[in-house]
Amino acid sequence: MRKILAVVLGLVVLGGVAFMALTSPTAWHVIHGEAGMGPEALAVAGHRPDPEKGRLLFFAGGCASCHATPGQDDKTRLGGGYALKSPFGTFHVPNLSPHRRDGIGAWTEADFVRAMREGLSPDGRHYYPAFPYTSYQRMSAADLGDLFAFLMTLAPVEGRAPPHDLPFPFNIRRGVGLWKLLFLDGQAFMPDPDRSAQWNRGAYLVEGPGHCAECHSERNALGAILPERRFAGGPDPEGRGTVPNITPSPSGIGGWSAEEVVTLLTTGETPTFDTVGGPMASVVRNTSQLPEADRRAMAEYILSLPPREGYKKPK
Questions:
Q1: Where exactly are the structural domains of the chain?
Q2: Structure pTM?
Q3: I want to staple 78 with a disulfide (CB 3.0 to 4.6 A). Which of 97, 116, 186, 287 is the partner?
Q4: Which residues sit opposite 41 in a β-bridge?
C-alpha cells in the first residue's frame, strides 16, 4: 500500500513540475525566442515613436470598442470594465488608460510590446486570449511603439475592472501557457513579395491590428481559430447569434465590389441598403477614422481571401 501511495504521490509531484515548466513563459520563449519582440527591435530600427501614427493604429485596432468605459460618450477614456461574455466565462476588460495605478501608465514601451505580442503582463502573468494577441503579434515593433505613444497622450482614468468571472479550470490563469504553446506562433507579419503594396497593407491591417478573424471565424473546443474556417463566420462569441462570413463566397460577400466593401467600412451600409449593427457598428466607427487608402487596402485583401462556405448553425 505504501508503495502505491508513493508512486501516486510521485506522479502528482511530477505532473505538477511538468505543468509549472510547460506553462512558464520561459517554455514559450525556448520554442519561439524573443528576436524582434521588444525594445531590441526598436533600438535597431532607431525608431522614435510617433503618437499621430499611433492614433491611426488605435482606430485600426479598435481599442476603444472593448476598453472604453461603458456608458460614456468619450471613447478615448479607456477605463475598461466592459463585460465580454464567452463560452469560457465572462472577461472584464481592463483599464488601458495611462493611469499609473489602475491602467498602463507605469508600463514601459517594452512592457506594452510584450503584452501585445506575447500576451504577458509586466509581472509575467499570462493574459487570457480574449485579448487577441494572436492577431496583434503580427504588428511591427515600430507600430506598437507608436500605438503606445498615442495611448500615453490620453486622459488617465481611475478605477479597475472587476476580476474575470471564470469557472474551473479556466480560472487557473497559469494554464494559458499551455494554450500559447499550441496556438501562439510568435510570427510577425511578413509581406508577400508577389503581391502589391496595397494588398500587403490590407493584409497587415486585417490580420494584425484589425484582428478581423477573431470574430469572423469558428473556433475549436479550446477557443482557437480553426484555420480552415478562418473568416467564414461562426457563432457570436458572446452568444448573440452568428457572425457573418466575410470571404468572397456566395454565402459571404461574394459579388461585392471593392467600392462596396469600402462603403461598409466607411458608413456601415451594405449593398442591400442595410446597416450593420451590434459590435460591427463600433468597428465601423473605428475604420471610418482611417485614411481611405487603408480602407481600400483592407477591401482588396478581404476580397482576395479564399471563398469558404459560411457557418451553419446546428439544428
A1: 48-183, 197-304
A2: 0.92
A3: 97
A4: none
